[in-house]
Input
Amino acid sequence: MRCLWMLEEVGEPYQLIEKSTRADDLQSAEYLRLNPNARIPALVDGEVVLWESMAINLYLAQKYEGPMHCAGPEVLGLSAQWSFWAVLEIEALLLDLLQHRAVLPEFARDASYAERDELLLRKPLGILNDALAGREYLVGNSFTVADLNVASILVWGKIARLPSDRDAVGATRPPACGRPCCLC
Ligand SMILES: N[C@@H](CCC(=O)N[C@@H](CS)C(=O)NCC(=O)O)C(=O)O
Output
């Protein structure tokens, strides 16, 4: 999903080849040549084949001119920083919270897991809220791949019923709220 959002923001023509998460789709020899992890997504851009959604988005921001183009190494470095940070500090906790708040059937949910996840998320969400205090974007004065990659993880916060008021403790309001392709 985050790569499709990025492609829409980049504005270059692309072809989407839809895959299901079924084994016969992802475990085919043809698909494994593109992504040996048997996961979605994979990007084919001429001779370049890439997997890992954050890396695909950073590549697209480097490669193509236009509104999402990284203006220089500083923007690229900061975008990589926020992208790795979101994956390492937030993603697993938020996915677990999502499971125990919304995805698992009621009988399998464990409120103590959700409580723990919410507590552990307070620190990174506080860091994000501080970084966005008085500004709309994480890097510079315009929407970049840093905002897109971080927001693409934080959108799950809404389904996981995290408060969205930026000033509340443990709250999340993703950068770039309200963009046409953003789900939040
Ligand atoms: N870290 C990978 C995660 C990719 C991933 O988990 N994709 C899911 C779909 S959103 C998938 O392919 N699931 C199928 C499976 O794990 O068997 C990325 O960001 O590209």
